[in-house]
Amino acid sequence: MGKFSGCLLASDFDGTLADSKGEITSDVRDALHYFLAQGGMFTVCTGRTKQGFHKYSTDIINAPVLLANGIMAYDYRRAKTVFCCGIGREDAALVSALQQRFPSICIEMYSADFRSYAIRLNERSRDHFQRQDILWTEIEDVAQAHLPLVKIMLSCGESCAREVQRWLDTEIDGYDLKYIPSTGEYVEIIRKETDKGQGLLRLASILGIDNRRVYAVGDGENDIDMLKAAAVGFVPENGSQAAFAAGDVTVRGNDDGAVAHVIELLDAGLY
Fold first, then answer.
1. Please, what is the angle between helix 258-267 and helix 26-37, to 10°?
2. Which of the ends of the chain has fewer CB neighbours closer than 10 A, N or C?
C-alpha cells in the first residue's frame, strides 16, 4: 500500500500532459514514476482516438486510456476495450443527411474496431490523418463503414463549420447524438450522454476507485465535464477561460510540468 493507493489521476494530453512540442518532459515522467510507485493509478483522457494516440507508455500510464473524449476506455496492456459508447446504424444515418446537405465537406469516421474512414477526402482531412499517422479508407457511404463509430468529424473550414452547426441545431435532435461546439475548422459529433466526465467516473467505478479520490487536469473546453466530475479539477496556467471556470485549482503551465505540479500538491496532502 502506497501513499496514492486508491487514487485515480486523469490528464488531458495536448496542452496538459504534453508540452508545446507535444512531448512529455522528464520532470513529468519522474513525477508519474513516483505517483505509480506509491500505488496511484494514472490515465490519459484525450479527444484523440486510438488510431491517433501514439504516446502510450507503460512506465507512466497504468490505467486504461480514455479515448475520443471519454467515449471509449481501452486497456493497452491487455489489448482490450473496457467500454465503448459508440454510434450505431440508426444514428449513423445522420452522415447521409450531412452528405446531401453539405456536398463540399469531408466526413471523417472512426470506428470502435480502430478503422478510419473518409467520405469525400479533402486536403485538410488528408493532412489531419497524416499528422496523426492514421491509416484511412476512402468510402462513398456510411454503410461501408464498420460500426459502431466512436466519433464523426466534419472537416468544414471555419465559415462552413458555423453553417453546419446552425443546421445541426435543428436536425440533430432526431438522433441520439450531439455535436461539440467549435470555432475552428472541424465539428465533432458523438453520442449523447457521453463526455470526459462520465467516462472518467465510469472508469473509476470499474477500477473500484472512490469518486472522492478521483482527480483530473485539463486545459480545454472539452475538459470541462472531466474537471467538474473530479473531486478536484486542476487547470494549467495555459488553460482556456472555460476550463478555469470549471476547475478548482490552477497549476503550472504545460511547458512547466503541469502534471508534475498536480502530483506535488497531492503529495503535500493539500487536496
1. 30
2. N
